[in-house]
Design a protein that fits this description.
single chain, 302 residues, alpha+beta, 3 domains, 6-stranded mixed beta sheet, 6 strands, elongated
């Protein structure tokens, strides 16, 4: 049986327990193992209903929180939550996954997943909310999904008991004898199948018991916004940097092109200057005079 409590109601229920003692949360712990917490409680949480888990024995809960913060605060808050879990010790809290990512839109996304003693899971979440609010963040979404694992474990035990009774009946039939080879093989196959089913049932019960013993809690951290594709960066500063980079690239291109063309331009200039020099001009004038003297003189026409 699935139990689904949506974000709004669960946000109230989860935050509402932040001022409760560990005894009210269903545990009795010495002072040195208290949950590290920020003692402040938001005004919205003060009037929240206090809903306990005592009314749902055998239910495995999965908590999920989404916190919205300024990008630069996400890593610090994520570290605080991890440190709070480490302070509790591995017997009460375990970190199973940590992620931190800068998206293509330059917005931060992060997640931390925990396995917690069920008795302190809600208080741990409420303290996390308080630490987020202290960092000028907000709880954007909170939800809890519950599965009635206890009922399924009981049903599994009943199925195993039925299988055991059937195996006992089949084994008694084998001992009684009077079965031919084919019938005996069929009975043995049924016994093996039932034993396999019992093994699967045992594994399923162990998994369910582990789910009840540990509550999954996921903290999701998201950016509080910014311009699409820009985030919280200064667009004018970015535009100025782009202009400077573009100008530098253009200047580099011009200088490189100039370095490649300049030697040939200087050579052409020297040739032009030499061609227009007095010496070359005198030589050209002398050549024209010589050519004119050698040209034949034509008689005048009448």
């Amino acid at each position: 049986m699935k139990i689904r409590l949506l974000a709004g109601a669960m946000a109230l229920a989860l935050v509402g327990c932040s001022e409760r003692s560990s005894e009210d949360a269903g545990i009795s712990a010495p002072a040195d193992t208290e949950i590290p917490a920020v003692t402040e409680e938001s005004a919205d949480a003060a009037a929240a209903p206090r809903i306990g888990i005592e009314a749902a024995p055998g239910v495995a809960f999965d908590y999920a929180y989404t916190f919205r913060l300024v990008d630069k605060h996400i890593a610090k808050v994520q570290e605080e939550h991890a440190a709070a879990c480490e302070t509790l010790g591995v017997q009460r809290c375990r970190i199973v996954d940590v992620r931190y990512q800068l998206s293509d839109e330059k917005l931060v996304e992060a997640q931390t997943q925990f396995k917690l003693d069920p008795g302190i899971a809600r208080k741990f979440g409420a303290n996390a909310i308080a630490s987020v609010e202290k960092a000028d963040g907000v709880l954007a979404d909170a939800s809890v999904a519950g599965e009635d694992v206890g009922t399924e474990i009981l049903a599994s035990q009943q199925r195993s008991a039925g299988s055991e009774a059937e195996i006992a009946r089949l084994e008694a039939r084998l001992k009684a004898g009077g079965l031919d080879k084919r019938e005996r093989a069929e009975v043995l196959a049924q016994v093996n199948q039932l034993r396999g089913q019992m093994g699967e049932e045992r594994q399923s019960r162990r998994t369910g018991e582990a789910r009840i013993a540990w509550t999954s809690v996921a903290f999701n951290y998201v950016s509080d916004g910014g311009l699409p594709g820009i985030g919280h960066e200064n667009p004018f500063a970015n535009a100025g940097e782009t202009l400077m980079r573009s100008g530098s690239t253009a200047l580099t291109f011009v200088l490189t092109l100039g370095a490649a063309v300049l030697p040939w331009a200087m050579l052409l200039a020297l040739l032009a200057a030499f061609w227009r020099s007095r010496f070359v001009s005198a030589v050209r004038q002398q050549l024209r005079s010589t050519q004119k003297a050698n040209d034949p003189v034509l008689p005048p026409t009448s």
